[in-house]
């Protein structure tokens, strides 16, 4: 069921930073732009609570009253993402200690220690008071808890809480020693008190590596859960007065420190902030949207923030070209967004974000390109109404994204510094993307049986339960594709002994003896039956144990002639193992072969054109997006009506620069 009754159109609105005369101008401008929603109270803790015992809602009351009068759907922040100065001074336990062991003073935002008793008490109390006051409002459509939860803390309170977490997980110190293999470098612990968080002063290494990956991995899990607990604290405090309005926290794509699959289970709807830079590949932006949709098994998400024009925090803050903001908004919708929201509605006069664009710029009037484009989009979204709400993406390919793997793979010292988890996932994603075949980003514990193909590159960390699930999936007829750096370690980051890829050996029908590593600038030829490509980064030395080689290494290295890509019939299914990082040509040959056994068809379109599909009870909708600022022609097998223009569309199309078509199929 759809969470909202129409698409929300609005964004972060900070009237508390402005005199009241300005508020009325704002309303006029937003109404004319057909906005129907505002996200308020995201950073106002210091105003709402001037001291320990006083709460002052006068200003927020006025803001809410104005929005209600103007019929806005309110997304209500809880304001707990930036501490008030008095709290930070009076109760230093709220301040974080960073990776270098430096205890922080008051300042910045996203700054609370997640295990501070003071922070936990006051953040929940504030959320509770806001819910008591506004939770009954009909205009309230969503709770936005905190803001962009992020970072880590290494303070003494966190250390204490970590020891309790460890005790609960392992029970005995012997079990911890075993899990982390502590006889290495004389780390054997005799009591929990001896264990310290793995920061720079301990076992952490500044480049993101870890000398005890088992320990660092547990700390990542612990930190992620601690922050998630802050969210739960506030959600529960809200629920005391408001049992039903959906609750979210705005996420940040493939943000490393927080396990979003775990986090999303605690939310009613996922929301996220999309800030691609001028050179982010379109396939990467698509992948981030798909990841956000995947967090709750394909449920629609909120595009909580995007900038109407330029950002200010990138190295190069390019303007969005005419039409590009609109196109990027629909890009999110094409991948599952049910809202289009901006950061921010009025551009700040001072402090750190004064050069960040907004719907209303510093000129303060409506005579801007940005506002004209925002208004055009507002009119279109109003026309779309609820047609696309809760529409799903019919994907038959699932690509595993897993935070445990993300952390563990990158904590490992060796074999290759250029090995980056998200890049490897994207490498597979973009091969499917360029064929315009729908794909889901999925959790490792999701139901594989709904997919014809499961892609699991760099499935480095693998427990027996998941290995069993993969075997069953393949046996029952699934196509399973994995790669080098898979099946190597268990959940504690200890090697699965007995040959790589550990528990995947049987299903893959191979044994990997060694892996060579090289910079991506070095290429090793890969020979398929009729064509060739190249491999780089890692080259596995593979022995066949039931599988067939579908490609072998070419000249250049001592493993010339040995298998590099293998295929194994297993039960009713097929398992592929890709022993290197293939170039685009190699990927294309490989996936032509893999997809041949499915009913999925590739649709190659001109560079910069993307097609996606969403379906709901209202019908099937094809989105045609032009990511480039030039007109493009295409011929494509689609017949229907464009929801944006009411034009009938059949097969041959002209797509304007940054153009978008949303075609309801006949
Ligand atoms: C993030 C934050 C916002 C704002 C924007 C600027 O997404 O949530 O408060 O700082 O970045 O791009
Ligand atoms: Zn802390």
Automatic annotation (TrEMBL):
Reaction equation(s) it catalyzes: Hydrolysis of terminal non-reducing beta-D-galactose residues in beta-D-galactosides
MF annotations from Gene Ontology: beta-galactosidase activity; metal ion binding
Residue ranges constituting the Beta-galactosidase trimerisation domain according to the UniProt record: 395-600
Naturally occurring in which organism (per UniProt): Enterococcus alcedinis
GO cellular component annotations of the record: beta-galactosidase complex
Protein family per UniProt: Belongs to the glycosyl hydrolase 42 family.
Name of the protein in question: Beta-galactosidase
Keywords annotated in UniProt: Glycosidase, Hydrolase, Metal-binding, Zinc
């Amino acid at each position: 069921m759809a969470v909202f009754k129409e698409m929300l159109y609005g964004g972060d609105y900070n009237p508390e930073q402005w005199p009241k005369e300005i508020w009325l101008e704002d309303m006029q401008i937003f109404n004319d732009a057909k906005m129907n929603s505002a996200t308020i109270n995201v950073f106002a803790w210091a105003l709402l609570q001037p001291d320990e015992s006083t709460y002052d809602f006068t200003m927020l009351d006025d803001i809410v009253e104005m929005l209600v009068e103007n019929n806005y759907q309110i997304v209500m922040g809880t304001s707990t993402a930036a501490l008030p100065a008095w709290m930070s001074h009076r109760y230093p336990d709220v301040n974080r200690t960073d990776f270098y062991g430096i205890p922080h003073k008051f300042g910045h935002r996203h700054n609370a220690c997640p295990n501070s008793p003071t922070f936990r008490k006051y953040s929940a109390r504030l959320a509770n008071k806001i819910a008591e006051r506004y939770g009954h409002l009909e205009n309230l459509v969503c709770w936005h808890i905190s803001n962009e939860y992020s970072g880590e803390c290494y303070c003494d309170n966190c250390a204490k809480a970590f020891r309790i977490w460890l005790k609960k997980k392992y029970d005995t110190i012997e079990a911890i020693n075993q899990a982390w293999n502590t006889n290495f470098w004389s780390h054997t612990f005799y009591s929990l008190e001896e264990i310290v968080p793995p920061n720079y002063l301990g076992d952490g290494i500044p480049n993101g590596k870890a000398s005890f990956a088992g320990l660092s991995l547990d700390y990542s899990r612990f930190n992620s859960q601690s922050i998630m607990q802050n969210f739960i604290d506030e959600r529960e405090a809200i629920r005391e007065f408001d049992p039903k309005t959906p609750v979210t926290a705005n996420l940040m794509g493939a943000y490393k420190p927080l396990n979003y699959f775990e986090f999303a289970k605690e939310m009613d709807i996922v929301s996220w902030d999309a800030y691609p830079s001028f050179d982010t590949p379109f396939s990467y932006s698509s992948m981030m949207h798909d990841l956000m949709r995947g967090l709750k098994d394909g449920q629609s998400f909120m595009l909580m923030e995007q900038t109407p024009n330029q950002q200010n925090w990138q190295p190069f803050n390019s303007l969005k070209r005419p039409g590009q903001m609109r196109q990027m908004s629909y890009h999110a919708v094409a991948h599952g967004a049910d809202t289009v929201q901006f950061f921010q509605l009025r551009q700040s006069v001072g402090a750190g974000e004064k050069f960040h664009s907004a719907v209303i710029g510093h000129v303060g009037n409506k005579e801007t390109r940005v506002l004209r484009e925002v208004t055009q989009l507002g009119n279109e979204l109003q026309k779309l109404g609820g047609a696309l709400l809760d529409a799903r993406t019919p994907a038959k390919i699932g690509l595993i994204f897993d935070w445990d793997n993300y952390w563990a793979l990158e904590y490992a010292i060796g074999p290759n510094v250029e090995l980056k988890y998200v890049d490897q996932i994207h490498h597979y994603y973009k091969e499917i993307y360029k064929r315009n075949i729908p794909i889901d980003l999925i959790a490792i514990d999701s139901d594989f049986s709904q997919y014809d193909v499961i892609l699991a590159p760099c499935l480095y960390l693998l427990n027996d339960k998941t290995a069993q699930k993969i075997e069953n999936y393949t046996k029952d007829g699934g196509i399973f594709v994995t790669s080098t750096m898979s099946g190597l370690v268990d959940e504690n980051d200890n090697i699965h002994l007995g040959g790589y890829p550990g528990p995947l050996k049987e299903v893959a029908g191979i044994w990997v003896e060694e892996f060579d590593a090289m910079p991506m600038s070095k290429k090793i030829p890969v020979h398929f039956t009729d064509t060739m490509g190249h491999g780089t980064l890692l080259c596995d030395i593979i022995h066949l144990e039931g599988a067939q080689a579908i490609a072998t290494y070419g000249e250049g290295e001592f493993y010339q002639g040995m298998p590099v890509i293998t295929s194994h019939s297993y039960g009713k299914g097929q398992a592929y193992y890709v022993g290197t990082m293939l170039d685009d040509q190699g990927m294309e040959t490989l996936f032509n072969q893999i997809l041949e056994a499915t009913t999925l068809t590739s649709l190659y379109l001109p560079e910069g054109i993307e097609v996606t599909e969403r379906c709901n009870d209202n019908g099937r909708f094809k989105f045609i997006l032009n990511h480039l600022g030039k007109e493009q022609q295409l011929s494509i097998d689609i017949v229907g009506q464009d929801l944006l223009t009411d034009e009938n569309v059949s097969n041959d199309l002209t797509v304007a620069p940054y153009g978008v078509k949303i075609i309801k199929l006949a």
